[in-house]
Amino acid sequence: MQKEQSRAGHLAALFTILLWGTTYIATKVLLRHFGPLEILLTRFVIGYLTLLMMRPGRVRLARPKQEWLFVFAGLSGITLYYLLENLALTQTTASNVGIIVTISPFFMALLTVVFLHAKLPNRWFYIGFVVAMSGVILVSDHSEVAMVGHWLGDALAVLAALVWAVYSLLTAKIGTLDVNLIQATRHTFFYGILFMLPLTWLFGFKLDWHELVQPVNLSNFLFLGIGACALCFVTWSFAVKRLGTVRTSVYMYLVPVITLAFSVWLLHEPLTPLIMLGAALTLVGLWLSGKTA
User: Could you give the count of Cα atoms lying within 13 Å of 11 in the half-sphere of its Cβ?
Assistant: First the structure.
């Protein structure tokens, strides 16, 4: 039974990362007609409504103070993470941001030790981290990596990685509650959307409905809302519940590799031997980091 649960967790994490790795392409298409905040809020509203249809009803908690877990999970993983990532992209290169946010598993390992009193990961986690990060750097766009990113953008990307680690820690705590996983994810989305609303006034929000209903745009919004938000946040929480925060987090190393694969396939971007080496190193790093148990 333990092995079957572990296998299910690995499959859920892999499925989640497979979809998340393609979101950059869908977002790139939508950015032609919509702003980052318009895309972000719209996709999470679609995700929330999808989860509401899948599992209606109120979330009933054993103790009122457990509500704070969902408040901070929505604030960290839904609002702050994506806001910091988008702000970082305005200050430094996309490659810098892509590399830096991949250090999130390292932060997760430290946070589980401090707050969950877990043991420090063994040496394979750190060896795998170094190998995987080397691969991520090789996979990234070297024309951009060669540029020195602005320190503010890089710092914001580090904060985004830390915030995602906090979100994953809260997800692990929420997973111990007697709450349906779909309802728990929906409840987290609710607070994330709530915290986004003031940003619509601060950054400006004007959704062009004529562009929204265009088949290409609508299909990408539905993919981001139903697939990458509603479905993937549930499967990620499921993986965290089955594998733990640290073992699940190392799958994030695969995001740049998956993005690369779909970029080559759909956008016909070049595939060089150096990039192939980077992808191989990332996979080896993932395998080594998985030897923590």
Answer: 6
CA atoms of 85 and 277, how far apart (whole Å): 27
Domain housing 199 = 2-292
Sign of the four-CA dihedral 145, 150, 151, 154: negative
The region, left, alpha or beta by phi > 0 then psi within -120 to 50, assigned to residue 220 is alpha
Write down the residue that tokens 């305005």 correspond to.
90
Model confidence pLDDT, tens digit, residues 77-90:
999 998 888 777 76
Contacts of 209-217 spanning 24+ positions with Cβ under 8 A: 211/33, 211/34, 212/42, 214/33, 216/29, 217/29, 217/30, 217/33, 217/34
CB count within 10 Å of CB 221 equals 20
Which residues, including other chains, have CB under 8 Å from residue 126's CB and lie 6 or more apart?
Answer: none
Question: Angle 275-281-284 (CA atoms, 0-180°, nearest 5)?
Answer: 145
Using one digit for the tens of pLDDT, what is the confidence trace for 6-31? 888 899 999 998 888 788 778 878 88
CA distance 163 to 151: 18
Count how many domains the chain has. Answer: 1
